[in-house]
Amino acid sequence: MSATAMIVDDESPMRDQLRARLQQVWPDLSIIAEAANGIVAIEQAEELRPDIIFLDIRMPGKNGIEAASILAKQALVVFVTAYDEYAIQAFERGAMDYLLKPVEADRLAGTCQRLQERLQQRQQEKTAPAATNTASDQAKQVEQMLTQLMQQQSQKREYLRWIQASVGTSLRMVSTKEVLFFRSDEKYTLVQTEQAEYLIRKSLKELEDELDPKEFWRIHRSTLVRVSAIAEVTRDFRGRQLIGLKGHAEKLEVSRNHTHLFQQM
């Protein structure tokens, strides 16, 4: 069965890996678009109208659950994430499924089979007058489920508040409220405060998943910045967005994939 799909993930290697897996298990599926965040995904989905959207949950700006409340009204949504904390069983209902990274071929094949069955069902509903309310009923069910999940997240999620950094033979506890930004540095991650800098072994992706997304934004593939530490956002002569921080002279570059965070400029 032929169909069209979009892949939404803020990490390019993850998009590449999923695209390759899909080519193996569903050769007739056409990947017509990719997006690195929920805002772009909504815009492209509105224009291209894909049948299926494979959607990462943890993304900067607008996360997957927020975007799905809009995307699920026009396509079948499959969540793809590295974490199993989002009530997996709930996604077996309605118009959605749930895949854990790294995506296994066997699990993906089962998902694709269910997607094909759902698409065929939708085609039949279009030609069956007695079933005209089925699609709207499913959309309502999806919206209710997403509302419940977002409430559960806000109530239960506890975010990282302290960073453990080694200084010589001692251990320093750094409050996340002291941190200006995190920057990946090969095997280590730099933690920058107004007074000092530290190196930790936790990856930037791990930090992004553990920090409150309202407090820390990814502005570049190698940089997370504390939002309340931002003093100004300017543009240089090349048109690049640069962030100025309170109490720190260094300017941080905003990559093209993350300029949507400062759309008012």
Question: Which helices and strands appear, and what pairs or packs with what?
Answer:
Layout: E1 3-8, H1 12-25, E2 29-35, H2 38-48, E3 52-56, H3 64-71, E4 76-81, E5 96-100, H4 105-127, H5 134-156, E6 162-167, E7 170-175, E8 179-185, E9 188-193, E10 197-200, H6 204-210, E11 216-220, E12 223-226, E13 230-235, E14 241-245, E15 248-254
Parallel strand pairs: 1-2, 1-3, 3-4, 4-5
Antiparallel strand pairs: 6-7, 8-9, 8-12, 9-10, 11-12, 13-14, 14-15
Helix pairs in contact: 1-4, 2-3, 3-5
Compact summary:
This protein has 265 residues and is an alpha/beta fold. The protein is built from six helices and 15 strands.
Polypeptide structure, described:
The chain has 265 residues and is an alpha/beta fold. Helices cover 32% and strands 32% of the residues. The protein is built from 6 helices and 15 strands. The chain has helices at residues 12-25, 38-48, 64-71, 105-127, 134-156, 204-210; strands spanning 3-8, 29-35, 52-56, 76-81, 96-100, 162-167, 170-175, 179-185, 188-193, 197-200, 216-220, 223-226, 230-235, 241-245, 248-254. The strands form 4 sheets. It has a 5-stranded parallel sheet, sandwiched between helices. The longest helix is centred in the middle third of the chain and has 23 residues, at 105-127. The N and C termini lie far apart (44 Å). 31% of the residues are buried. The mean pLDDT is 82.
